[in-house]
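>> received
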Amino acid sequence: MHQWPIHQWTMLHRLDLQRLMLLMLQLPPPNQVLRAPAWLREYYSSV
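>> returned
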């Protein structure tokens, strides 16, 4: 299997984070925030 260089993984990870941010911006119903993991609740409360 082809091994990717580290910087490509981090680039991929950054893209995933951006997509996640966009998703989070689209779904702020409180009940979903309550069911979210702790780091996600932290993100919402820091915004």
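>> The CA atoms of residues 24 and 44 lie 9 Å apart.
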